Amino acid sequence: MDITSLIDILSIAETAVCGLALAALLVRKQARAYLYLSAFLVVRLISNVAMMVTLTLRSHNAASPWLPYKIYFYVYWVSFALEAALLLLCVYGIYMLAMAPLRGLQRLGTLVFRWAAAISLAVSVGLAFGPHLTGLRLVIRLVAQLQQTSSILTLCLLLFVCFAIRPMGLSYGSRIFGASLGLGVMATTNLVVSAWIVSGKQMYSAVNLGNGLAVCAAFAIWTAYFSLPEPKRRMIVLPTTSPFLRWNQIAQALGDAPGYVAVAGVPPEMFADAEIEIMKRASRKMIEFPEAREAKLKNAEGLHQVG
After folding, report:
1. Which of 54, 108, 173, 215 is in the most buried spot, having the most CB atoms within 10 Å?
2. Contact partners, residue 244, CB within 8 Å, separation at least 6
3. Rounded to whole angstroms, how far apart are CA atoms 179 and 252?
């Protein structure tokens, strides 16, 4: 069996496992919680089916293969760009689920994610432009560069999520970890493919074969994790010295309006009559308390001498 037949079989297997992963999300009613992952699977499933149909039409219409090739080209690169954006959004959704108990860190992570996504987009656009790149070659370079920066940012965010899983009361059997593991495989694969695809000129190669195996493994991981029951999340008990607790407290305070304390220069007209009366009584008690205390001490000394 040659490499062309193996890649064709892997394409069919990838489409089937992708459908199983999406079905597991829908049956377990997790599509809303993992919205971006569900959207990623839908885009991948539709693009795989469209490309398989296009290749079939091309093989049956050898006289004019250019129209199926154009359809295949645009479907592939449009889906490739959409998957790059959805892959990054998947990590954002997983981060929000993992950090749900710590609202401060969750809000701070949202702000950091927006800045990182904007910088990644700007870097991708800047690096895509180069000499002798016009038309379709410019689009291919731009999408591949976007996929590279998206994959690197995804891996960095996933590394933080994996370190935060245990302190956040999650286990390695949780769906959040399973989704993160599959996304890590996808991001690593896309990073390699996006670097190779700009210079690669063959549809059937060892890189495509490895890409198909890795994608099937990622879909199989998602299918297994979302099909099996999920362990219950543990109660989070953090020590007072935990950096997560300190960062959460700092993040909760960021952006809030500060309190104000009157130091001096407050005229009496600003207080109500009842407030002035309360302050007068408090002042009298403060004056009377030392006198009463001194009288009690003298009485105690007198009783001691008599005794």
Report:
1. 215
2. 102, 105, 164, 167, 238
3. 28
Based on DSSP, count helices (H) and strands (E) in the chain, helices before strands.
Answer: 9, 0
pLDDT higher for 237 or 93? Answer: 93
- Both tokens of 145, joined, read 């560069």
Identify which of 147, 184, 148 has the alpha carbon closest to the alpha carbon of residue 163.
184
Q: What is the pLDDT of residues 199-223, one digit of tens each?
A: 555 556 677 788 888 889 999 999 9
Distance (Å, whole) CA 215 – CA 144: 18
C-alpha 162/C-alpha 159 separation (Å) is 5
Can you tell me whether residue 208 is helix, strand or coil? helix
- Quote the pTM value: 0.72
User: What are the pLDDT digits (tens) for 66-125?
Assistant: 777 778 778 888 888 888 888 888 888 888 888 777 777 777 777 777 777 777 777 766
For the chain, give the number of residues.
307
Structure tokens belonging to residue 124:
């991708």
Cβ neighbors of 220 (< 8 A, separation 6 or more) are 17, 21
What is the Cα–Cα distance from 123 to 125, expressed in whole angstroms?
Answer: 6
For residues 217 and 18, the answer to whether their CB atoms sit within 8 Å is no
